[in-house]
Write a structure and sequence with these properties.
2 copies of one chain form a homodimer. By secondary structure, chain A is α/β, with parallel strands linked by helices. Chain A is built from 13 helices and 12 strands. In chain A, helix 5 crosses helix 13. The structure holds a DNA duplex.
DNA sequence: AAAATCAATGTAAACGTTTACATTTTATAA
DNA sequence: TTATAAAATGTAAACGTTTACATTGATTTT
């Protein structure tokens, strides 16, 4: 390449990066050589020298979740505006894959990581943050080393359950998942404290567990119905679970919202493509993504960072009155 | 690192890559130094030297499509088994982003590309294939240089429409999109030839255009109904369009499948989460992904490649009799 | 006309690997 | 013993950049 233009590699570099001076003539010579050869600077040479790549990784468990893909899109947009590129790595819940993707990052492939969810322990998260800039988005572990951007899950659940209560419901099923995510824990807290504030006793039998999915909810909720436990409404921690439960109710001739009211979570497609449309808790995907990137850039640039809690919103649809 | 173990960099490299001989003692020394320092070989040094990264890129327009994410998962699984890692780049339909992701690839970041869909022209696709191994999966352009793995869209549509016809339907709406994708074109051909083979005249008025989405279909199909054109069934090129149309029919008191039968495409979530469940054309995601990767590996290893056409399957549900 | 300044460009080191080749050490054979 | 072979390890070049520094040549100042 340098030979083609008849100049030194240094000059080529200067022209391409518009750094330092050079004459119009050489600039032209280089530029046309670039054109002629279709020359593209090698990423590795550059990265090796600069020790930065301007690429950030977004790590999550599954691409299937449309809420996540929406957050990713926001991250990507703002990152692009700041000269960064985004690459998405889905672990599919496999620890090994998570490890090797993180390895890429710690080996220099990425300038930072935004973690939507991971199986990292508190200690691992903390030590990873010492190796490379990391911010958590949406789901998080509260370590002192890794900033997070999320919503107040407790308050969100509180609001959702309060809506049901204000509609006169008192036997509210909490359809949750058996895991230790902050979101799950927070939503459980919110559920309980809404009951509490309204003088409704907490009933363990109304808490059921699924895995966020639709199909699992169809069989799971069916089993619940078979137990004959009395209830008048459902608050589910995912729209898909809400939809699955609703479909079972439909099959059994139980009307929504007349007999049972339902509130889901995430405002995903299924909440408005199902019949009736499902009332749900919407998280601000756009702001989540944007703030996460900003925090990451703060770390990269050595600026001060902070945890960010964004506000949610209840989207009322036809599954509640 | 080399100093820590008290050996040369060459020895370190040999130990780590288990290449060439060395004594048990030095091996131990290196290994414990690795352990102590938490040493990770730098990806760029390695890539620069080897000119390979063992990473492949999957390029697509949007992560929102669950069919695509399912194909990606298959690619990823088989790639992992062959020592390759996968990274997903979503263009969101933005030409610039497509370009810079492709740049990463041509600059050495990736050993190959699997394109699920792109806005590349035939010429661009062809010339890209001369720079880096590329295979097209699912959606494709027929260039002589870039192998593809897909289904026979014409036959799939033919089968779907034949099902409707064999159920006695003759006024079949073709709900399609206004683009030049092979899938769209093929499905149109299949639709027409099924009509033809059954002596049903093609009626231009029964062809309507949407953008694959649910919301678009709700308004679009509503407009169609307002025109008062007589029809007794719908074949849509996406499940979401089928679901959107079905929801409009529901609102207007038109029964599915009694009054109108519907067939969708892709066997995505919405086809079984909507009520009634939608009959659809299932593509073999697993095989699509697997074959795409195998073809890519063929190119990388300089072996012979071929285009692959996999078979589809009609999944009968409640939107047809 | 000599000295000083400045613009344009080249030189070479550095980034962290891999690997052909050279060298050293150790074991074996004569 | 010494010569030879084999094993272990080191040396140095190469990959493609960036950049501090050096060099060249032209222009300006004295």
């Amino acid at each position: 390449m340098a030979k083609e233009a008849g100049v030194s590699v240094a000059t080529v570099s200067r022209v391409i990066n518009k750094k330092g001076v050079c004459s119009k003539d050489t600039e032209q010579a280089v530029l046309s050589a670039v054109e002629k050869l279709g020359y593209k600077p090698n990423l590795f040479g550059k990265a090796l020298r600069r020790s930065e790549t301007k690429i950030i990784m977004v790590l999550l468990s599954s691409l299937a979740n449309t809420f996540c893909s929406s957050v990713i899109r926001s991250i990507d947009r703002i990152a692009g505006m700041h000269g960064y590129y985004t690459m998405v790595c889905a672990t599919e819940g496999i620890k090994e894959k998570e490890e090797y993707y993180i390895n890429f990052a710690t080996n220099g492939l990425f300038d930072g990581i935004i973690i939507l969810n991971s199986s990292l322990s508190k200690a691992e998260m903390s030590s990873l943050s010492k190796t490379i800039p990391v911010v958590q988005c949406n789901e998080y572990i509260d370590t002192k080393d890794t900033p997070y951007v999320s919503i107040d899950n407790t308050k969100a659940a509180y609001d959702a359950v309060s809506l049901l209560i204000s509609n006169g419901r008192r036997r509210i099923v909490f359809y949750t998942a058996d895991n230790n995510l902050v979101s799950t824990k927070g939503r459980f807290d919110g559920y309980k404290s809404a009951l509490d504030d309204n003088g409704i006793p907490f009933d363990e039998k109304l808490v059921i567990y699924g895995n966020y999915g639709y199909r699992n909810a169809v069989t799971g909720f069916s089993d619940f119905l078979d137990q004959g436990i009395e209830f008048d409404s459902i608050f589910a921690i995912s729209d898909r679970m809400a939809a699955g439960a609703m479909s079972v109710l439909g099959e059994r001739g139980i009307r929504v919202p007349e007999d049972v009211e339902i509130v889901g979570f995430d405002n995903t497609d299924i909440s408005y493509t199902s019949t009736p449309k499902i009332t749900t808790v919407a998280q601000p995907h756009h702001d989540l993504g944007e703030n996460a990137f900003c925090q990451l850039e703060n770390i990269i640039s050595g600026r001060h960072t902070a945890n960010v809690i964004l506000s949610h919103r209840i989207v009322r649809r036809d599954s509640t009155k």
